[in-house]
Specification:
Largest sheet: none
Distance between the termini: 46 Å
Radius of gyration: 25 Å
Strand content: under 5%
CATH topology: MetI-like fold
């Protein structure tokens, strides 16, 4: 009696049937991700425009769009504003406030915790455009709620402090994710370790440095990677400021919109989009390198192989 051959996969489907299950997902990925990415790369090499002769018969211009973007002072200014926006609202604001809330609520029960979690989650699940218009109503120069509360009628928050306004707006909108991730990570910190550190005379900063952060370092890096990428590609601040005044809040996604759609230079916009993709890859590689170093450090500390 012939012995049955084992399937090539754990589910026992065999390669052909497993490929049939995966094929629809691969088709969708190819249609909605791979093809648009390749098409964007191609457009970035042409002088394709939204209207005019270049729209009907675009010509290949090579790397001119890329060199032109890198030499454009407005692109460099937008890149700098985007880095400030990511650093202020994601790395400092969302990550810092999210951990603070998770740490303060870790041992609390009752209505206070539920109210705080509910308010933070509500700001996260609301559509971005809705939140944007709510903040516009809050910061409006003439009838804004904030001016009414502070008795400062006519103060133009969005005109005088545009970058700070969108940073605070994004911190309020995106802190929930960091709070939930850190709350789950803090569950892995044994209370006995914190109690031992406290009895040894360690204050709260020392407990965080010596006990908490080493145990949740990978969670911190993962959170920073995700929120940095999301914030870097965020277009929602356009609802508040439109990139103004005078480009003082024109982060890169808004800059791409202005170049590609408002100015009609689709080829240049595609080239800038590809540059943004490369910058995102640099972010991801930097964080992954830190994660890999942390993993090797843990293996060496546990007595395992260093590689």
């Amino acid at each position: 009696m012939a012995r049955p051959t084992s399937a090539a996969d754990a589910a026992g489907l065999g390669r052909s049937r497993a490929a049939a299950f995966v094929l629809p997902a691969l088709v969708l990925i190819a249609v909605f991700l791979v093809f648009p990415a390749l098409w964007t790369i191609y457009l970035g090499l042409t002088d394709y425009r939204l209207t005019g002769l270049a729209a009907a018969d675009p010509q290949v211009v090579g790397l001119d769009n890329y060199t032109g973007a890198l030499e454009d002072p407005r692109f460099l200014t937008s890149l700098w504003l985007t880095l400030l926006y990511v650093g202020g609202s994601a790395i400092i604001g969302q990550a810092g406030l999210g951990f603070t809330l998770a740490w303060m609520l870790r041992s609390r029960t009752g209505p206070v915790r539920r109210v705080v979690e509910g308010v933070v989650l509500l700001s996260w699940i609301l559509p971005s455009t809705v939140v944007g218009f709510l903040w516009f109503a809050l910061l409006d120069r003439d009838d804004g709620t904030l001016n009414a509360l502070l008795h400062t009628p006519g103060f133009a928050w969005l005109l005088d402090y545009p970058l700070l306004s969108i940073i605070i707006f994004n911190v309020w909108r995106g802190t929930a994710f960091s709070m939930m991730l850190y709350a789950a990570a803090l569950e892995n910190v044994p209370p006995s370790h914190l109690e031992t550190a406290r009895l040894a005379g360690a204050n709260v900063p020392q407990q965080l440095r010596d006990v908490v952060f080493p145990r949740i370092r990978r969670h911190i890096l993962t959170n920073l990677l995700l929120i940095s990428l999301w914030t870097f590609n965020d277009f929602t601040p356009f609802v508040l400021t439109g990139g103004g005044p005078e480009g003082r809040s024109e982060i890169l996604p808004v800059y791409v919109y202005r170049v590609a759609l408002r100015d009609g230079q689709l080829g240049v916009g595609a080239a800038i989009s590809f540059l943004i993709l490369l910058i995102n890859l640099l972010f991801a590689l930097a964080y992954l390198r830190l994660l890999r170093g942390q993993r090797r450090h843990q293996e060496v500390a546990a007595g395992g192989p260093p590689a």
